[in-house]
Amino acid sequence: MTICVALLGGSFDPVHNGHVALAALFAKLLAPGRLRIVPAGSPWQKNGLSASAKDRVAMLELAFEAAALPVVLDCQEIERSTPTYTIDTLRNVRAELGPDASVVFLMGADQLQQLDSWREWQRLFDFAHIGVAARPGFDLAEAALPAAVTLELEKRLSPLAQLKNTPSGLAYLAHELAVDISATQIRAALQRGEQANPLIPPVVLDYIQQHNLYKI
Ligand SMILES: Nc1ncnc2c1ncn2[C@@H]1O[C@H](COP(=O)(O)OP(=O)(O)OP(=O)(O)O)[C@@H](O)[C@H]1O
Ligand SMILES: O=C(O)c1ccc[n+]([C@@H]2O[C@H](COP(=O)([O-])O)[C@@H](O)[C@H]2O)c1
């Protein structure tokens, strides 16, 4: 049987309930043999990060442990000194897992809307499938996507079972997620001295307070 590995990449600055819900949704849908969380080292489309890699990793460990969602943290992007390009990560993962494993890179609808800005974005499909979850404020409908992304999706949209049973090249849209949370919103709330309680796992909030993060 083919193994299926799902990867969730992100800045996780900090990890929040939207990330946990996205991971949990695809853990249920795909039942992957492994769910890997891949914290970004230098996300080149972002204007810097607030928390250190060490703190972001610690918060990820706490969040997924509290959610009782077994994950493996893959820190290769933090260990690289180059800007974080997903294509590099997927090349490495494919080399590690071999040609037959099903690899699914997960993302929210906001990333799909700008997928054509990613480095070598069409080549991502040579190494992995993509699994996309809906996100409030970001439309998954064709009309909301760049034409080039729509063209790729039209060729690649497939049922989940096909993603599980083939190595790469397909796409799946999960319309059922509706968690209106962003790390930007959480950082802003924490800077204002608000608690951000329903947005973030309590263990992560404790960590943020103990380590005095997101104050400025
Ligand atoms: N509420 C959410 N619903 C669905 N997907 C999400 C949600 N929040 C984040 N994601 C997805 O998780 C991945 C990592 O996101 P990221 O760490 O950038 O969080 P973010 O909340 O978008 O951060 P920021 O507000 O700092 O841009 C991305 O693929 C993103 O689309
Ligand atoms: O490869 C790229 O060029 C690229 C451009 C933007 C985002 N990504 C990846 O998309 C994921 C979410 O990114 P972010 O910046 O919203 O946290 C994370 O794994 C990033 O490395 C990747």
Automatic annotation (TrEMBL):
Keyword Transferase: yes
Enzyme class: transferase
Swiss-Prot/TrEMBL GO biological process terms: NAD+ biosynthetic process
Alphabetical keyword list: ATP-binding, NAD, Nucleotide-binding, Nucleotidyltransferase, Pyridine nucleotide biosynthesis, Transferase
Domain Cytidyltransferase-like: 7-188
GO MF entries: ATP binding; nicotinate-nucleotide adenylyltransferase activity
Catalytic activity: nicotinate beta-D-ribonucleotide + ATP + H(+) = deamido-NAD(+) + diphosphate
Pathway note: Cofactor biosynthesis; NAD(+) biosynthesis; deamido-NAD(+) from nicotinate D-ribonucleotide: step 1/1
Keyword ATP-binding: yes
Protein EC: 2.7.7.18
Highest taxon of the lineage: Bacteria
Any single Pfam family the record assigns to this protein: CTP_transf_like
Similarity remark: Belongs to the NadD family.
Record function comment: Catalyzes the reversible adenylation of nicotinate mononucleotide (NaMN) to nicotinic acid adenine dinucleotide (NaAD).
Name the UniProt record assigns to this protein: Probable nicotinate-nucleotide adenylyltransferase
Gene source species: Massilia glaciei
Gene from which this protein is expressed: nadD
